[in-house]
Amino acid sequence: MQAATASTAAGSGQATRDRWTSWNVYDGGCLGTRLGTRQMLDFTVFSQDSANIRQLGKIDSTFEWREARFSADGELRCFDEPVSFSAAFDFNGFDLPKGQRFGLAHFWIEIPVNRWVGTVTVGNQKPPFSIEELITGGNLTYMERALTAFEVGDKTGVVVANHALDMRLTWALGLFSNWISGGHEIAGTARVTGLPVYASDGARLVHLGLAGRYLSPPDGPSQYKARPATHVGPYFVDTGPFTAGRAWGLDAELLGIWGPLTFESELLETWTLSSQGANPNLWGAYIKASWFPTGEVLPFSRKSGVPGAVVPKRKWGAAEVAVRWYTNDLDSGPIQGGVMDSLQLGASWYLLDAMFRLDVNYGRAWLHRFGTVGHSGVYGFRLQFQI
After folding, report:
1. I need a labelling partner for 24 at 20 to 30 A (CA). Which of 36, 86, 93, 216 fits?
2. 3-state helix, strand, coil in the chain (%, to 5)
3. Whole-model pTM?
């Protein structure tokens, strides 16, 4: 459900990559697997006005090894229907809990049941909530996600997912907990997606999605915080720790693909029971548009309702340009974490069937916090290698 199987990865649309990486594929009849890695090197430069410096202090330019991921994906084919699996270990990865530098990013097994139930996926995995969160870090249009204040990361649990109407309708239910690590938290999520428009094998489509989640009282205090689409520097908006009970989230998605043009928008809202914070209502949203001047079309999985990896049409690669506006609003009653708005431009170049990727991002951020409005610019540069 969440990663390409070995047979898929070694097949359609990836001939160039296979010529370079056939060494990492094993097909033993009953077992098919593919080893992979994703490496990201970032350099980030900040510019600040005097108000932003008073808010956050001077922020230095930073070089970072953004992610080092090692993974194995594949299938067990000794059953009537193949059982898929995926495992990944990360350093500084996208899917690790906030503050954790090393760890198991995910490990799951997907079991097909029948046409009525669909599939059951067990293990550490992405909860079915938010299209931006479900897109793997290496396939994001920008270097970082927009609504990072509301990420919950991969969790251990069970997801039941299915589709209907020739995969134009999907749904997924998930139940998660941290009991294995000795905690008491429970999370439940649900996501429904539809394709009212689907033509030309996905070259023209409109995707709609609606998701909800429930979070039980956490083992410790709650905290929401976000940077301006970068992984380094201080958190621009931050509620600080506060005592919280149950929390509910609602997410609405819109994605449109028209040939090389893509439009995407999302609205995410969270309600938290908190006597300390007077039941804060925090939210975020983004609107994004991108264009492939080289003619590529963003791949889209009807089974999962999530975009996939770009595959260049030409030997010298694919180019993508994008623009995005987003906000993270962490002000609600006595919780005054600030409001961050940002307008961002991005350009990417995908080389050798997207094994290599170069990114240049620029964002202008407006921070409403501490009784003033500070302005800053964030310049991001990334080199990514992925097989």
Report:
1. 93
2. 10, 55, 35
3. 0.89
